[in-house]
Structure formats: C-alpha cells, structure tokens
Amino acid sequence: MKLDKSELIHLANLSKLHFTDSELEKLSKDFESIIEFANEINAYSGDCEIISNFKTVEDLREDVVENDLTKEKILSNAPDSRKGCFVVPRIME
To answer: For all residues of the chain together, what is the average pLDDT?
Structure first.
C-alpha cells in the first residue's frame, strides 16, 4: 500500500507538521516500509516464542520500608530552608 501525496499532506496537517516535497517523498517511502512490515507481521500464522526482558515477580526483591531519611537530612541539601520547609524564589507577584 502506498500513500499518495495528498494523503500525506492531510496527515501532516492533522499533526500540525509541514514538509517540503523532498521530505514528503522520503516520508512516503518510510510509511511504505512500515506498512509492508506490519503486513508481514499480520500474515505470519506460525507459532512464536514470546521473548521478554521483564523480570518476573520471583526475580524481584522484597520491598522493605526504611526510615533513614529525616527532615533535617533532606533539608540539609537545600540552598535555603526556613521552619522545616524549602524556600524557593518567588516567581509571581
């Protein structure tokens, strides 16, 4: 399937994008290869093995609550603090 120039311009306008003629030509080729790849995936009917880089629940560590951050420790890194709070520059009058 090939998108013609008017369809690409319509998609670009919907996306608030502007392209030159040479960019539209390259975009047309890119869309063509994406659609061709999607069609190959859709046409595949064989079994495939699911590959995942995600860890399983068994691989994750136990959540442990630690209370090692005190208010004083956190505020010690602030450039300015008063009465237990961060002081930031005023940005509105």
So the answer is: 86
